[in-house]
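Researcher: Next entry in the queue.
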Amino acid sequence: MKRLKYMAAVILLAVFPACNTLDIPPVSVIQDPDIFTDDAGIAAYMASLYSRMPMEDFKFSTVEGTAGFNTWNIINSLSINTGENANRNNGGFSSPARGYWGDAYGVIRYANNLIENLPKYSGNFTKDKIARWVGEAKFIRAYTYFALVKRYGGVPLVKVVQEFNGSNAEELKVPRSSEQESYDFIAADLDSAYAGLGETSESKGRVNKYIAAAFKSRAMLFAGSIARYGTPYTANGIVVCGMPASKANDYFKASYDAAKLLENKYSLYKKKWSATDKLATADNYADLFLDATSTETIFIKGYSFPESVHSWDAVNAPAHLTSTYGDRFCPTLDYVELFDGLPKNAKGQLNTLDINGAYKVYNNVRELFDTCEPRLRGTVLLPGQKFKDGYTDLRRGTFVESIDPATPILKFFPDDSKTAYSQIAFYKTNVKESSDWKPAGQVTIVLSTGEKIYASGQDGPTSNKGSASVTGFAGRKYMDPVLPSANTTLHRSIQPWIEIRYAEILLNRAEAALELQQNGGTIAGVDLQQDAFTCINLIRERAGATMLTDRTELSASASIPKEMGTGGYVLAPNRGLQIIRIERRKELAFENKLYWDMCRWRTFDQEVNARTWRMCNPFLFAKGAKPELADYVNGKYIFDCRFDERNSSFTFPVRNYYEPIPGGEITKANLSQNPGY
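Model: Structure for this entry, 677 residues:
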């Protein structure tokens, strides 16, 4: 009977989500005395709270779903705006502004209810249990407020359960607080949660004190950046967007202190790591997102088949390694070029040409990337890379057999040209290509040996600008390598989402330390520049990247300008912070972190301004080619680096640093709107 009652409670909590300061809450059939009686009742209440946390995970989209959350359609993810990723469905900026508001205040109301009323039932529970559960509710409240504040700036801070008595409607209209007050409230909730929570979680997927500290390091880093780089905006006498620059160091110190609390509690995942084996180190990095025993995982959201699933693999797998969809996970060449171990030109771009401007000829499709930083291979599926039950069969086209690989071929067109291949006479005569990756659109080449190959492989890119890979790469991060291609279909993926991991905490700590060191901040007994140096090198060592040699590399000297070296397009006030920002991009890509990083740094509108991402097209020589497998052709290759063939252009509107407050909420509570709307 009790179990049925608790199931009913969970359903009611899920069905009646509005209940916020600006909307009148319904009266629940199941009341607090029915829930706050034993551990099972609390577990049911917590299950509802956790299930509605605004987590930007595998099911977060910029185009549909409940305020962007909980949708299978993740084709347009945050990463398509940042230069991490491209896909054939999107050719321009996709705003994530989905009006997340009412659902947030529904979560906040239920968190407030537990915080306010559970202590009244102290006779049913121990003091420690009540402290833990109130701590969890405060964490969820802070997490939800952060989702609001990073979108809107200062928001109405509702700290108690509000009830409508028939005549107090005006009292329930809570005005926007300042952005500073909003972050200070988040910090206070997380400090209180840390104090009340235990060192270990009550059950998997629930928070403990170190998860609260980890999240505080993220939120306070965001706050510090807004104070340092944001522009204050005042409405109705309240600074609802931006904060005083004088507060920046306070927030960076809070971020650093919170990150420091996790030291020796978690560690970077290194189960397969090897100082001498690049492939093992690459596999180690890929495995950390799939290994349930990882020492790096701090906070996760779990999935299970069939009741709780997502579609990450089906939407994103290489085209021929999925039974539905696929190919929407295409890391850009801009992203790939951030990594060490690749041949680069003076601009920091991938160099596939000899000194005469002719293409270098590689002995196989993998050779160009043989010496790359292992983390790249653990994040991205490169041409010819083994994955699942096949290989990434990535090539743009194939030279006819009469073209000898020993004969130099000059670059088709200059780097800054967006000319279509079809405009080049030599190309039209001597390159065979397919219009689609699917068999019906494939052009089959019969070799002189009688063997057959597809002109554009099975994963493209193809001559159809909207088909298969659009960059010459596919994604590996979070992809399940043991899920057979035949089963890679919608609603079959169950790998957990890692919301917080220790690598992010080290990066938070490094950035906060350097921001403090460069701006007159101090922490007793800590050499902040050295600490940042140590944290970055821990990340780089695990990645198999080139180590920093001296802490002075994290100096306040001038940043590398665009087209003057690797990562020059990554904007930062100085070289030290530029190094840290590049490291965050490499380490945290495709985890829905970079979008918000670029927002808090206020660099988005400059980095992504009429920007076209770049791609890398492999071309096979039919002469001497040998199809070893259905999806792997051995032979000589060249690689052409160019702009995305679709000429898709991305621009980030300045006003999007803050999203528009939903019009209905403005009307109901007389709230001020954000600038630009």
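Model: The chain has 19 helices and 18 strands.
Researcher: Noted, moving on.
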